[in-house]
């Protein structure tokens, strides 16, 4: 098995199939984690009011079994095969014929492709495992932020610590650079947040954005932060202008910044070092 995985092509293929399975699970996380957070907040609010929280059915990432939100049809194992089931079902629920969002197979395919790219670029070892973990976290954060404009601490804080753990062993950068990156990443957007708020009286971003940039700093070191900020701002500006021009997105409607930070983090993962040398002038 280890000899097979040592072959770059074989490892990329295995990682791609693994990514399809993980992508199916990420769809569950994107949908259920915000609901779990809301239930937890409601329970805490009830306790603060001195009330006894109403009993609720068990709800987690594993329970209950996935169902069609319209007819309640329980999704069987054969209906939950990544990509294949959606195609065979024609993108519709087997029970009632309701359309199933194309986002589900797109997330599965994207995860599979990025897992395969991670395996191909880094080879069998700790760097590839770390890259896949970062890819999974970035996809989850992107999906949740688009849906709810939240970046859950349940994802951003473990991501930061996992980055520090990997770099304790100098996987992506030195521990010294990783710690500095975590601090500077958080403080950079924290400073922008308060400068914007003092100047306008409005909040320009959420605290989750600070934590996500701090986490990316922990993964790649402080030297990569200028590139990540530049790329995320550029992508965010292009998407924001496009939404206003083509989708008539109102200027007063907030646009989540987390997905663009996550996208910039993935660009830094695969092409960060040459881009940083070319555009920032820093050698890593």
**Share in helix:** 55-70%
Structural class of the helix and strand makeup? Answer: mainly alpha
How large a portion of the residues is in β-strands, by DSSP E?
under 5%
Order of helices and strands: HHHHHHHHHH
Shape: globular
| Gyration radius, rounded | 21 Å
* Distance between the amino and carboxyl termini: 34 Å
**Average predicted confidence as pLDDT:** 88
The number of helices is: 10
| Topology, number of strands | 0
Structure description:
With 284 residues, this protein is an all-alpha fold. It has helices at 2-5, 8-48, 84-88, 103-122, 126-148, 153-168, 175-200, 207-220, 225-246, 258-280. Helix 2 packs across helix 5 (126-148), helix 5 (126-148) runs antiparallel to helix 6 and helix 6 packs antiparallel against helix 7 (175-200).
Task: Describe this protein with a few key phrases.
284 residues; mainly alpha; 10 helices
């Amino acid at each position: 098995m280890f000899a097979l995985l040592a072959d770059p092509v074989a490892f990329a293929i295995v990682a791609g199939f693994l990514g399809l399975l993980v992508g199916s699970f990420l769809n569950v996380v994107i949908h259920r984690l915000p609901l779990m957070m809301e239930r937890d907040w409601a329970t805490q609010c009830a306790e603060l009011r001195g009330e006894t929280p109403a009993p609720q059915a068990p709800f987690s990432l594993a329970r209950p079994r996935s169902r069609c939100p319209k007819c309640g049809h329980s999704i069987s194992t054969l209906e939950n095969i990544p990509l294949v089931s959606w195609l065979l079902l024609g993108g519709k629920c087997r029970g009632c014929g309701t359309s199933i969002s194309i986002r589900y197979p797109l997330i599965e395919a994207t995860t599979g492709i990025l897992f395969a790219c991670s395996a191909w670029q880094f080879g069998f070892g700790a760097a590839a495992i770390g890259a896949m973990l970062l890819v999974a976290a970035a996809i989850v954060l992107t999906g949740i932020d688009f849906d709810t404009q939240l970046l859950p601490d349940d994802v951003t804080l473990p991501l930061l610590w996992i980055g520090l753990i990997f770099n304790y062993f100098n996987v992506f950068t030195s521990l010294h650079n990783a710690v500095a990156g975590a601090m500077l990443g958080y403080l950079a957007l924290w400073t922008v947040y308060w400068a914007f708020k003092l100047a306008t009286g409005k909040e320009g971003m959420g605290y989750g954005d600070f934590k996500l940039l701090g986490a990316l700093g922990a993964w790649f070191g402080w030297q990569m932060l200028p590139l990540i900020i530049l790329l995320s701002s550029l992508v965010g500006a292009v998407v924001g202008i496009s939404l206003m021009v083509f989708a008539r997105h109102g200027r007063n409607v907030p646009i989540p910044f987390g997905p663009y930070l996550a996208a910039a983090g993935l660009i830094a993962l695969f092409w960060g070092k040459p881009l940083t040398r070319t555009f920032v002038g820093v050698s890593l």
